[in-house]
TrEMBL record:
PANTHER family in the cross-refs: LARGE, MULTIFUNCTIONAL SECRETED PROTEIN (PTHR33546:SF1), LARGE, MULTIFUNCTIONAL SECRETED PROTEIN-RELATED (PTHR33546)
SUPFAM superfamilies reported for this sequence: ARM repeat, Cytochrome c, Soluble quinoprotein glucose dehydrogenase
UniProt signal peptide: 1-19
Annotated ranges, domain Cytochrome c: 838-970
Keywords (A to Z) from UniProt: Heme, Iron, Metal-binding, Signal
Record-linked SMART domains: EZ_HEAT
InterPro entries to which the protein is assigned, alphabetical: 6-blade_b-propeller_TolB-like, ARM-like, ARM-type_fold, Cyt_c-like_dom, Cyt_c-like_dom_sf, DUF7133, Haem-bd_dom_put, Membrane-bound_put_N
Name of protein: Membrane-bound dehydrogenase domain protein
Annotated Pfam families: Cytochrom_C, DUF7133, HEAT_2
Annotated source species: Pedosphaera parvula (strain Ellin514)
Length: 970
């Protein structure tokens, strides 16, 4: 007898008082313990032994469910033993929606974690491979076992692996990276070169030799809406939108484009959660945050009420719950709003409930894969003492799959009985996404061009926009698309249809004047996202005739960073034309135009001839008006930064001096104008009533000038009474100046002692970048002006191994007796502070002073290292471990890199972004250093954390106890 429970608000009390033991619950007990949104019901459709450790599910056209069982999680069966991961085929022989027949489809897998149906078989992700399994003799067991791709990383933990094969509307199958890099090749398509995926996901077109990196860095979770927009998640980021494809990011080699992913929740990337469980890694009945976000699903079914359409769901197995967001378009992006305050969509007081993945089934219901484990943590992330007492085995023989529907929903037993391709086309109009995508898949598998005429009609007359997009995309994949269908779709009333039509039009623009003219006109489209896509698509023309359209798009959305990035990616070699167009317009002083002009002029600085730059500088500074100062500062800063990056700055000269050093009348006039602009910047910096953004922009210009001109002003900003961001900007500006005095002022005894940790880190970063400044600092240490202990261990190590022998020798003499040695011993010594009574108020002050330059807690701080919101979920000894030994565990996305540049700088930071032409290093306070690949002499990953060692030396033991207490008590 199957048990169905309908939840109402009146059951909440019963849930809260439910007596949950430390042992496992039966499925019936588990169902009774759930808190679920009112008006819904939840059923267990498969349970142990029918299914064990389920992590992914997919249905074929016969309604059979393929389930991936990651039985070996977290570390496998042990050395010398056969892998135990399986793919099983579950069937409902009674067609009642409950699965009663199990067949092991494929076994002997290490850590399988994703599945997708294709041509009567399934693709399965199991690093380092993507497999294809198929049963050809009808016994339910795969006899075809083929490696389609290999080279995905399998050296990281089982939580960091390729996963989630999903067919998108464009006919490509997308896979997550697992936050790891990969060198992907195919044993089938041996002529295809190896594909390198660095900080990217992966995609391929089935049964073709097309495979490539794709935008996004998903961990265990990706999903798509019905129009191809991709959403991803990772442990601490539960809902991110991927904003553009890599081809757009990489095509303009002079543009320093960094971001392509955006956190979209309005309630924070990590998000406050409302668990009911008293988990062993959390405070009792705490209010937690995401620490294990995974399995994101954009719901597109019909078995839930209409309010659940365009909702996303994300699993949080550590908190024993599933979170729900309502997604809406906003400008060029999306916003995810919490569906309900104070509660989550599905939660249980049962610590064993471990939802890890979600899927929408043939019946339109939302399915939950529950691994049902006592512990859902990887041993490598725990201190050894905690690891020894943690039970990783209990639950390895269990697992459940739940179905969630509206309370009034009745089980659908309709079978997918379609014999002709034309009938498949009709199913594209289904309100249920599973039926649409299954019809799409079968049409792609068949490659039946006889349906082209039907699909062409559907582009215009499809009953729903989802059908019109699929018809358009299928025509493209069948090589049966004509310009007329694209033109029809470009005029569709639905925004997403128009957006897809632009993408489909791109390869044809150079050959079709009709399509080109239509896209140029769409620069005035009423929707911001369409205009955003218009800029991206027009860039595929590589023609100056798109510039007026790009300017129009900017006029309407210059305050939107994604619009600015789209335009910068599209401008190609016509940045000068766009600059001229913008300066002739009326919006050059608009809110977002300064940011645009900095980047646009930086492109010019990195690409134009010195004579052309002199002419541009003369044009930009022609006006002598306070009203124009803001945009002029931005433009001049950009040009100066461009020539600095390019290496055109003369020895011992500032960029501004190099730009204005000519003897011609025009050069002299420009020099006077630039000097006046710098003086306006000085005034702006000193103006306490100016906004922080205005003052920072002014510092950006002063950083391009000489120490004799702006040094005194910049020094005045390095004052505890000034905002930390302004102090750091001033330190970096001084560090970049060629004058010897600029470095000397950074290591003055009175100044060094007053530096807060972020400011001191910025000073050390600036000093470490230049050999001359390093020598200045070493002299200051030898004289006692700078305490040697303020140089953290990883920097001491770098100095003692510096390629300049004189620096290495001098540093060794200073630091050789100071190396910290075994940091684990320090950790053991400091464990006594866990018994101290913490003062959370003082702990907050310590955190603000020491940690906010790189970490965020509840919206406070800078995003460099991991967001610590919700870190309270970790035991106190784990928190102390990561403070004392920062490199104990470094997630791949937080790997620190050391970069030596050809112009003599040494830079360290996190690899925030990379394109074909640039990399971006992120340093303390979120500062980003953009480095052209052409200027990289060497680049290497470090085994050390960007977070400094020996943080304990900056505080007392009681302070350390207070800091841990604050983090635990947030």
């Amino acid at each position: 007898m199957k048990k169905t429970v309908l939840f109402t608000a009146s059951l909440l009390t019963a849930v809260l008082v439910h007596a949950v033991t430390d042992g496992p619950l039966t499925p019936e007990q588990a169902i009774a313990s759930f808190r679920l949104d009112p008006g819904l019901k939840i059923e267990c459709v498969a349970q142990e032994p029918m299914v064990v450790s389920p992590v992914a599910a997919a249905w074929d056209e016969k309604g059979r469910m393929y389930v991936v069982e990651d039985r070996g999680y977290p570390v496998g069966p042990g050395k010398g033993k056969k892998p135990v991961g399986q793919v099983v085929l579950l069937e409902s022989t009674h067609h009642d929606g409950h699965y009663d027949k199990r067949t092991v489809f494929a076994d002997g897998l290490t850590f399988p974690n994703g599945v997708m149906c294709w041509k009567g078989g399934v693709y399965v992700t199991c690093a380092p491979y993507l497999y294809y399994f198929k049963d050809t003799d009808g016994d339910g067991v795969a006899d075809v076992k083929q490696i389609v791709f290999k080279g995905f990383q399998d050296l990281s933990t089982t939580q960091l692996r390729v996963s989630h094969p999903i067919l998108n509307v464009d006919g490509w199958v997308y896979l997550t990276s697992g936050l790891t890099s990969a060198k992907v090749s195919s044993p089938i398509y041996t002529n295809h070169p190896v594909v390198f995926c660095n900080r990217t996901d992966f995609r391929f077109k089935p049964d073709t030799d097309q495979f490539e990196p794709t935008a996004g860095t998903a961990q265990f979770g990706e999903t798509f809406d019905s129009f191809g927009h991709k959403f991803i998640c990772s442990n601490r980021n539960h809902n991110q939108a991927v904003m553009m494809q890599l081809k757009y990011l990489n095509r303009n080699t002079n543009a320093a484009l960094a971001d392509i992913v955006e956190d979209i929740p309005d309630h924070g990337a990590a998000s406050k959660l409302y668990p009911l469980s008293d988990n062993i890694t959390t405070s009792a009945l705490h209010t937690g945050f995401f620490t294990s976000a995974c399995g994101i699903n954009y719901y597109r079914g019909t078995a839930l009420p209409d309010d659940y359409k365009d909702n996303s769901f994300t699993c949080e197995p550590a908190g024993n719950l599933v979170h729900r967001d309502v997604i809406s378009p906003t400008n060029t992006s999306f916003v995810a709003k919490r569906a309900q305050d104070g509660v989550d969509f599905l939660a249980s007081p049962d610590n064993w409930f471990r939802p890890v993945n979600l899927a929408t089934g043939p019946d339109g219901a939302l399915y939950v894969c529950d691994m049902y484990r006592k512990t859902i943590e990887h041993p490598e992330y725990l201190p050894e003492a905690t690891r020894k007492i943690t039970d990783f085995e209990s639950g390895k023989d269990k697992g459940r799959i739940y179905r969630i529907t509206a309370a009034s929903y009745k089980v659908q037993t309709k079978q997918f009985d379609v014999s002709t391709s034309k009938e498949l086309c009709e199913l594209l109009n289904s309100p249920d996404a599973w039926w649409r995508t299954t019809a799409q898949r079968l049409l792609l598998e068949r490659q039946d061009k006889s349906v082209a005429s039907t699909l062409k009609k559907m582009v215009k007359s499809g009953k729903i926009p989802e059908a019109r997009v699929l018809a358009l995309r299928l025509l493209e994949c069948l090589n049966s698309l004509e310009d007329q269908q694209i033109l029809t779709a470009l005029s569709d009333k639905n925004v997403s249809v128009r957006e897809n039509a632009m993408q489909v039009a791109e390869p044809r623009l150079s050959q079709s004047s009709r399509l080109t003219e239509r896209l140029l006109a769409m620069a005035n489209d009423s929707d911001a996202r369409v205009r955003f896509q218009c800029a991206l698509s027009l860039g595929e023309l590589h023609d100056a005739k798109i510039i007026p359209a790009l300017a129009k798009i900017l006029d309407q959305n210059n305050d939107d960073k994604w619009t600015r990035e789209a335009v910068l990616s599209a401008v190609d070699n016509h940045a000068d034309v766009l600059l001229k167009t913008l300066l002739a317009g009326k919006n050059k002083d608009a809110a977002g135009m300064s940011a645009m002009l900095v980047e646009l002029c930086r492109i010019l600085g990195t690409s134009e001839t010195p004579d052309k730059l002199a002419s541009l500088l003369n044009q930009v500074t022609a006006s002598n008006s306070d009203a124009d100062a803001a945009w002029q500062q931005a433009a001049v800063t950009g040009i100066a930064e461009g020539i600095r990056v390019r290496g055109l700055v003369g020895k011992d000269q500032s960029p501004l001096l190099s730009l204005t050093s000519g003897d011609s009348t025009e050069a002299k006039l420009t020099r006077v104008r630039v000097e006046e602009l710098v003086q306006r910047a000085v005034s702006s910096v000193k103006d306490a009533n100016a906004s922080l953004s205005q003052r920072l922009a002014a510092v950006g210009l002063l950083a391009q000038s000489e120490f004799s001109v702006s040094g005194k002003t910049l020094q005045s900003l390095i004052d505890p009474q000034q905002p930390a961001e302004l102090q750091v900007a001033a330190v970096r500006a001084l560090g970049r100046m060629p004058d010897a005095d600029a470095g000397t002022v950074l290591v003055r005894k009175d100044r060094w002692s007053s530096y807060s940790p972020p400011v001191r880190d910025a000073a050390l970063t600036s000093i470490m970048a230049k050999p001359r400044l390093i020598q200045t600092m070493l002299i200051a240490i030898e004289s006692g002006d700078v305490p040697a202990w303020t140089v953290n261990e990883d920097r001491r190590t770098q100095l003692m191994h510096n390629k300049d022998e004189s620096i290495a020798k001098r540093a060794s003499a200073i630091f050789k007796d100071m190396q910290a040695g075994d940091r684990m011993k320090v950790y053991e010594e400091y464990k006594s502070v866990l018994a101290f009574k913490p003062d959370s108020k003082n702990g907050h002050a310590i955190f603000t002073k020491t940690c906010t330059g790189c970490h965020v807690v509840s919206g406070e701080g800078k995003t460099v290292g991991p967001d610590l919101t919700g870190i309270r979920n970790q035991p106190s000894d784990v928190l102390l471990l990561h403070i004392i030994v920062p490199e104990y565990e470094i997630m791949p996305t937080y790997t620190c890199y050391n970069v030596e540049t050809k112009d003599g700088r040494s830079l360290t930071g996190l690899l925030a972004a990379e394109s074909a032409s640039n990399i971006t290093l992120r340093q303390a306070l979120g500062h980003e250093e953009i480095i052209p690949r052409s200027n990289i002499a060497s680049m290497s990953a470090s085994s050390l954390s960007l977070m400094p060692d020996e943080l304990e030396k900056t505080m007392s033991k009681q302070d350390m106890a207070d800091l841990v207490g604050f983090l635990k008590g947030m």
